Fold these 3 entries.
Entry 1:
Amino acid sequence: MPVDPGRKVLAPRELGLAARPNLLTFDAGPEGQSFADVGFYVPTYMGPLSVFEAAQRMPRLQVMQLLTAGYESAVPYLPASAVLCNAAGVHDASTSELAVGLILASLRGIDDFARAMPQGEWLRGRRPALADSRVVIIGAGGVGESIRRRLVPFEVDVVVVGRTSREGVHGRDELDSLLPGADIVILAVPLGPDTTGMVDDVFLRRMKAGALLVNVARGGVVDTDALVAHCAHGRIRAALDVTDPEPLPQDHLLWTTPGVLVSPHVGGNSSAFLPRARRLVERQVQRWLAGQPMGHVVAGPAS
């Protein structure tokens, strides 16, 4: 990928990239910037759609580097001449930490205890343990593997499910036989044609009574109406960092459905994010300036 030395890198100021003559930075959004010479663009992390729309006003853009692993929202705005790169790996540690936290909070009733504190209630009782449970992780990528490593010390039986079977990984075609024996099912898959609505009424019916569904993937992987129905009847519980729709409207049933714990899509947004994101972007910019093939390409001419 030959690079004109006059082309610029446009990136959020919070990344703290090493100063270079061709670096342009912005704060909340790229509005007001001159896009004519931008060749490498980093949209704001978890920004509005306007940060992707800006790419269409960059006539010389060659690379759009995301700070998220998911990329489906950016694809419609990618110029034909540019490649789209995601940030696979950047959020593995943070997201897996939250997944484990959601599991423990839901099983041990930590959310109930927090709600009882203002009233001074002493909520005694026996709660399910994570130890000795069977956990099925659907998603054998970086996040899924990171979750698996963190769960093993909790003395659980972990089963990993990928798109296809291989050593140490079951295929999705085995889910019918795996779901009835799972105490916890964790979703860590990208959103795509084969995963959108994957967790539907049929899927939820196959889960054992009392099982916990944890979603740190994308909200669209789950049929929300079906999930609300199953949780409302007490068949299963759910701990969700992502929802459909998102943000979750204030009057949505998920907020008040029994057995549901919701966090506001904060899986990757921890103190671990910026250092990892900075290292990734620096490596990618160096590749681009050297005319080398880009890493993490998920869409565009070289995908």
Entry 2:
Amino acid sequence: MSARVAILAGVPLALASLPGCALFRPPAGGELEVTATAYNSLPGQAADRRDPARSASGAELRPGMRVLAVSDDLFEDGLRFGARVWIEGVAGEWRVEDRMAPRWRQRIDVYMGDDRTAAERFGERRVRIRWRPPP
């Protein structure tokens, strides 16, 4: 095989690995049915943390942020910090920035800022979620 053919033979593989190339396929996210609850960042609600407004990812939680906490099993399945999530029946795009206590499985916790009433109203429900991995 000539040197020219060897170089040309490698071009499609090289192009396929470039993010801007038409052959590039970003990692797929997922879709799953989970239990959803809601949480706040009020003093006394995060007994295992000194600062209830600091998420497990290190983000400073503020009312109005669209942030989720996820159970350990979902975190291991790709719902890692920075993953974008869409929740059936809940408006907008949410971002994973927190983790739940290890006892929970197949569960997300939707951040409701300091609005305890909104979190109580949200309650517990089964929802379908879709997600994309972090950039």
Entry 3:
Amino acid sequence: MAEPVAQTMAHGGVVELHAEPSALGITAAGWVALSMLVVIAIMLWKKVPAIVAKALDARIATIRSQLDEATRLRGEAEAMLADAKARSAASAGDAASIIAHAEEEAKLLLSKAEADAKELVERRRKMADDKIAAAERAAIAEVRATAADAAAKAAAAIIAEQHGAAADKALVDKTIAGLGRPN
């Protein structure tokens, strides 16, 4: 760890500046950046996007089984309709009504199941996209904040090292000389 550095100011005061602590030559900001990289690497290594896709695939499979069930129900409904036709050949008007109703109901079930499946897939995809985008925004913001903090600290250190009483005098003289001139 570095020793404190004392600087004298133009007004005669003393300010103590402490060097930033570091471990293994890496400052706290460096450790934060390194830990973010490790977290992102672990997410990619553990295949988090693949896990999300796997969960969505499982839900799609469930919806497909529901669609198959709806198709099977439609087949059963059509079979029942054919049976009803055989038993009631005399009432052809009733059979036509039953057929139309069964087909309409099967179509409604099938279209509703397809719409639900599409909606669920889209919703899950959007949720996954939103989570990924949020994680990216958080990582970028953290990297920017770390970089800005490091730049500010570096600028302060450079100014503290290179700015003394002689430089203050020259700046004050130049400013005073510039006050009399119009812009």
